[in-house]
Amino acid sequence: MSRHVLVMTELRSGTLRQVSYEALTAARKLAEGGDIIAAVFGRDLPDVTAELQRYGANNVLYVDHEQLKDYATDAYLEAWTYVIEEKNPSVILAPYTAIGKDVSPRVASRLGIGLISDCTDVELLNGRIVFTRPIYAGKAFVKKTFREESRVFATLRPNNISAEEASDARAATVDKVSVDISPKSLRTVVEDIVQKTSSGVDLSEARIVVAGGRGVKSAEGFNVLQELADVLGGAVGASRGACDAGYCDYALQIGQTGKVVTPDLYIACGISGAIQHLAGMSNSKVIVAINKDPEANIFKVADYGIVGDLFEVVPKLTEAFKKTLS
Ligand code: FAD
């Protein structure tokens, strides 16, 4: 049975976020020959048709509007709802990012449809769409289906479905969608966005994360981790212990109440491994833990453990990687 699948893509600084390709890869599993429609939202949109087509989209919708320049809940709610109503897809896939988390439940509520959020996998079992999502802060996974498959809506956690280009990519048609967003309907307006300084690698999409905990002991201590992250082309993250202590910004917090990351390599430095921290990183592909305490809980989830002082171990790793990678 073929299905029309609508994928809500996401742009950052004019470039498609990786999770958009992951969602298109998931869409191909479900479409079974049906249309794969990719919707792009923003203002003065770049031409991303070729990329979207490579990952399987055969219809690209550009929803370009002044009010979509920066993310604002009400404006995106109007735009997403309009596109869904216009295209009437049987499956809607959106990223479980800050935007997707905020707008998807509102869209689902407005349209009176169900939503399965934060899915880590999607598959077809006996012809039914089955989503996998974590429960109990990632300690277990459940498989969920919709009772009726007339309208299926799910958000996908970044970095879980591996993005693959379509071997049978079809030519994509392009539509410009004109949506009516009245400034009067907007309860909040974004006046300005102040970009925080960062190494440039987005933590939630980084393939390598070097994370520090209270054991890093100071904001300056994080420079040692940043150097390792820079050499590896990764991003720096932190435990809540480190954020609470004021060593770094809460935007770096990983865990149950922070970001969930699933990089290829996670290097935990001076992090004890509290359950709330593990909730945000235990699905990383390879975990390396550096801790002075051989009994630290983090070693229970680590693939490689180094018992030692992070201020001795991390600079040595940085030097070694500098030599091997140069
Ligand atoms: P600590 O537990 O103090 O561990 C520091 C570690 O550093 C120790 O293991 C120590 O042996 C090691 N160490 C010290 N010096 C060195 C050195 N020189 N070299 C090597 N190792 C060294 N936490 C999160 O991280 N993310 C969350 O999202 C989160 N959400 C929470 C939500 C709730 C509702 C609650 C109650 C708690 C939450 N927490 C969260 C807090 C969590 O319970 C822990 O308190 C926190 O993760 C501890 O941070 P830490 O591992 O950096 O610090």
Explain what the structure shows.
This is Electron transfer flavoprotein subunit alpha. It is built from 9 helices and 17 strands. It is of the alpha/beta class. The protein has a 7-stranded parallel beta sheet with strand order 7-11-6-1-4-5-12, sandwiched between helices. Strand 13, helix 5 and strand 14 (about 235-240) form a beta-alpha-beta unit. The radius of gyration is 21 Å and the shape is globular. Flavin-adenine dinucleotide binds next to helix 6, helix 7, strand 16 and helix 9.
User: Helices and strands, in N-to-C order?
Assistant: EEEHEHEHEHEEEEEEEHEHEHEHEH
User: Which structural category fits the helices and strands?
Assistant: alpha/beta
Mean pLDDT: 94
DSSP, total strands: 17
Number of helices, counting only DSSP H or I runs of 4 residues or more: 9
Helical content band: 25-40%
Beta-strand percent range: 25-35%
Largest sheet data: 7 strands, parallel
**Could you tell me which ligands this complex binds, including any ions or cofactors?**
flavin-adenine dinucleotide
pLDDT < 50 runs, ≥5 residues:
none
Keywords: Electron transport, FAD, Flavoprotein, Transport
Organism: Novibacillus thermophilus
Cofactor: FAD
GO molecular function: electron transfer activity; flavin adenine dinucleotide binding
